[in-house]
Amino acid sequence: MFMHHLPIELLDNVAQHLPSTSLAALAQTCSTLCPVAQRILYRCVSASAWTQNLCVVDTLAKKPHVARFVRSFYIAIDSLSPVFPAFYRQLANAILNMSELTSLNLLVDSSVSWVLKESSSHIDFPHLLQFTCSFPFDENIARFLDRTPSLLELEVDSMPTAFSRNSPTPYLSPTSIPRLEQYIGSSKTAELIVPGRPVRSIHLNGAGISEDDIPLLARSTVPIVVLGTVTKAPPVPFLEALRNHVPHLVYLRVMSTQDIFRAPTAEFYEQVANVLTSFTELNAFELSGMHWGSQRKQDDSTKRIWQSKPLQKRTHPEDDLLFGTEIFIAY
């Protein structure tokens, strides 16, 4: 039997076990095996200056039939490895050709969000599930998100600058990214993206949020179960505001800059424990890098008892450091 008579599924199954060097050689053998090898060779593309393979961007820009094989694309270029503007024009063409992407990571110069402009004007990315970029949230990003109806995970504006904080807020259609579940980025962008969408997990970078910002996050169409944020507000009032607006949290991480250099008192521990107990679904809590101990109540496993005193020095090695009954307050 000739090679070209074999089922394509069989050829794919054999080729997927080959190393990349063998796939590259296989692609040069004949017209039958070339697309088989390319489909696997270009399925997941990772390019960076330090791996010295940025030339793959030129290939994807010039060969649309190859770019359509790409499912996951990752590129990282730091400030110590500058590239010419012509390279970013090629990157824009490559993105335009990769219409079948499921994952896209663009960790490049934050000022070149225009690489998405042509793509967002001409094609859709119906299969894209995850998108991470180093860009501020601007008009180019907003228009690109209009083209990603299946997106589940988004990271944008993670390192807001003074320019991005003061720039006008772009318009994002209410029908954009209707399935979004996870957001990572600035609080300013979160206030635009989270309301009206099924966002369950939120991680906020930069200056974080105040008590007044919490009601906007609570406008997610589903309960928020994961939250990580920085705040300038005092921890206890901030936790009380969270309790009132997002009571279904399962994991909570808060970095408070209030009294950051002052050791917490026993009274503070008890106040925090009182608030945490009112989060009926909370399983894990961190405050300014401190993990707050907890254990399930013996008579009701659906509720937790939270650490209400500073940990004491152990007198016996076998003592339970986190779950000793003397450091918990029960409700």
Q: Which whole number gives the mean pLDDT?
A: 85
- Biggest sheet, strands in spatial order? 1-2-3-4-5-6-7-8-9-10-11
Order of SSEs: HHHEHHEHEHEHEHEHEHEHEHEEEE
Radius of gyration: 25 Å
| Cα separation of the termini | 75 Å
Instruction: Count helical runs.
Output: 13
Poorly predicted runs are: 321-331
Percentage of residues assigned to helices: 25-40%
Number of strands: 13
Q: Pairing-aware structural class of the strands and helices?
A: alpha/beta
Question: Main sheet?
Answer: 11 strands, mixed
Percent of residues in beta strands = 15-25%
CA-based shape: elongated
List keywords for this structure.
disordered C terminus; 17% strand; eleven-stranded mixed β-sheet; alpha/beta; 331 residues; single chain; 13 helices
